[in-house]
Amino acid sequence: MGHIVLGILFLLVALLAVVSVIRQLKFKNILALLFSALTAVVFGFFSIATIISEIVG
User: Fold this and answer.
1) pTM, full prediction
2) Is the CB of residue 54 less than 8 Å from the CB of residue 21?
3) DSSP notation for 4-33
4) How large is the C-alpha radius of gyration of the chain?
5) To 10 degrees, the CA torsion angle through 6, 9, 14, 17?
6) Are 27 and 53 in contact, with CB atoms under 8 Å apart?
7) What is the number of structural domains in the chain?
8) Domain span at residue 46?
9) Do residues 53 and 3 lie in contact, with contact meaning Cβ atoms separated by under 8 Å?
10) Is 40 in contact with 17 (CB distance < 8 Å)?
11) Would you tell me how many other CB atoms lie within 10 Å of the CB of residue 11?
């Protein structure tokens, strides 16, 4: 049960990073855009992997 909460927290961080990607596209800040995109990909992957591993067993 604890791991599913961790997966949901990772998912919230990934969604916040996606919002940051959109903001950085507006500001045309390339370095922040790269870090935000990398954060969204990494945390998104780990959140989905954690949730799937908890569901499958």
Assistant:
1) 0.88
2) no
3) HHHHHHHHHHHHHHHHHHHHHHHHT-HHHH
4) 13
5) -140
6) no
7) 1
8) 3-56
9) yes
10) yes
11) 17
Window from 2-6, 13-17, 48-52 with minimum mean pLDDT: 2-6
Q: What is the pLDDT of residues 25-55, one digit of tens each?
A: 999 999 999 999 999 999 999 999 999 999 9
Structure-block tokens of residue 26? 């507006």
Backbone angles phi, psi at 27, to 5 degrees: -85, -10
Token reading at 34:
């790269």
Residues whose CB is less than 8 angstroms from the CB of residue 47 and which lie 6 or more positions away in sequence, other chains included: 7, 8, 9, 10, 11, 13, 14
- Name the DSSP letter for residue 57: -
Name the one residue in this structure whose structure tokens are 């961080």.
13
Note whether 33 and 21 are within 8 A (CB): yes
